[in-house]
Design a protein that fits this description.
Helix 8 (157-167) packs across helix 10. This protein has ten helices and five strands. Strand 2 and strand 3 (48-55) form a beta hairpin. The protein has helices spanning 2-7, 10-16, 84-95, 107-110, 117-124, 126-134, 138-150, 157-167, 169-173, 175-188, and strands spanning 18-22, 37-41, 48-55, 72-75, 99-102. It has a five-stranded mixed sheet. The longest helix has 14 residues, at 175-188.
């Protein structure tokens, strides 16, 4: 299920050129339990609708045995004992699958922020951040935007202040106060310096 949600995200669709369409429907319009979904393959024209099976970390073809026929398998990663080429050959014979996409092979998926209770709390702070931004002047909003864009990476305060002083004359006049203001502003939002 988590792979389906991830795969339906805009950045995943943009990177893979595949779009999640929905569950597989049978001839009566009822949802099939397997394979998991239909996807739109936009990698070349004409676009194609493919039957897709998702697995987190499969151990072999036996994990796909009860999934019927599908065109493509999308997995998070392969177990260390599994050879992708052999699995592709096995799934072609067993399920008619012609391709396996391993999301962990893509940098964008490898570098996703950790999913923790703390990261979920930070998501809840977005509404507070929006309200805060609406009450701030542009240099503050600019700083928050950069901090949020870099998250979970950190930025260097001295470089931020240097950039603000170059871009905004009002910041240059109150350089000492700006540093204090940024520390307070970013710490309130749990953004790292």
């Amino acid at each position: 299920m988590s792979l389906r949600h991830l795969f339906s995200a805009a950045f995943a669709q943009e990177k893979l050129k595949l779009s999640y369409l929905g569950p597989v429907l049978n001839s009566t319009g009822s949802i099939e339990t397997s394979p998991d979904s239909l996807i739109l393959d936009q990698r070349k024209t004409p676009f194609r609708t493919l039957r897709c099976e998702f697995k987190f970390i499969p151990n072999g073809k036996a994990d796909f045995m009860h999934n019927g026929n599908f065109d493509i398998a999308i997995v998070w990663s392969l177990s260390s004992s599994l050879d992708k080429k052999k699995l592709e050959k096995d799934l072609l014979t067993q399920n008619g699958c012609t391709e396996i996409i391993v999301l962990e092979d893509y940098k964008i998926f490898k570098e996703l922020p950790d999913y923790t209770n703390e990261s979920l709390k930070n998501i809840a702070n977005i509404e507070k951040l929006k309200k805060l931004i609406l009450r701030r002047e542009f240099p503050s909003v600019f700083s928050l935007y950069i901090a949020a864009s870099l998250y979970p990476e950190t930025f260097k305060m001295d470089k931020m202040i240097e950039l603000l002083c170059k871009r905004f004359p009002e910041v240059k006049q109150m350089r000492g106060k700006v540093e204090q203001m940024l520390y307070r502003l970013l710490n309130k939002q749990n953004l790292h310096l």
